[in-house]
Model the fold of this input.
Amino acid sequence: MTEAEDEAGRAARQWREAAPGAVLLDGFHGLKHALRFGAEVRLALTSDRAAALALAEELADDVTDRLRAILVEVPGQVLRELLPRIHPTGVAALAVRPSAGSHLDALNAAPRQSPVVVLDNPRNLGNIGAVIRLAAGFGATGVITTGDIDPWHPNVVRASAGLHFATAVERLDLPDLPAGPLYVLDPEGKDIRSTVIPDDALLAFGSERHGISPEMRGRATELIAVPMRPHVSSFNLATTVAMALYHWLPAPGAGRI
Done:
């Protein structure tokens, strides 16, 4: 057995041991974002190390040195045995999930400098990931989900492109939401364009099929609505979140991001 084969076999064993409970980073971009935002990456595998490093040099040279230090090349067949599916970039990694305590500290910090997005019993894993990606991009304090779906599900992390590590992502029960004015997106609310969303707001959005729950609606400080053309049923959840966060976003030079 060559030294490379021995290293690949050892990496595969380490992966199988570490995978339960770890956060799967599926693809180069997920790993790139995780590294940029301080994730503790335990193991990173690729079926083509040279190609992965070339991609890093082209698109994310700030993480190239770290990738060079941690990427282990394994045969494509080994990668197929370890993963449900292989990302087109041929890269996958395992990271440590941040502690709930650290996230709760960020979510409950006062005064908050940016809103917290609350998804009320969301059902679509891809939508949750897209919202987390938006929250990271807008500099939101975090994303909270209610209901039974774990927002750190592998399909959610895949949809967020690893940007879970750029914001505080937790699942909480309704009574445990952080303090702050609760702005609930609801078709019966007042036009969002006439509303000033404060930095410490909780911005709550209903599920894709059933909308906001009566319990969440009843706790609202204010109901607000995104204007929409008559006879159009709804916007996609992530689109609505993007519009609400954009409305909150300060003018250039205000310095929140």
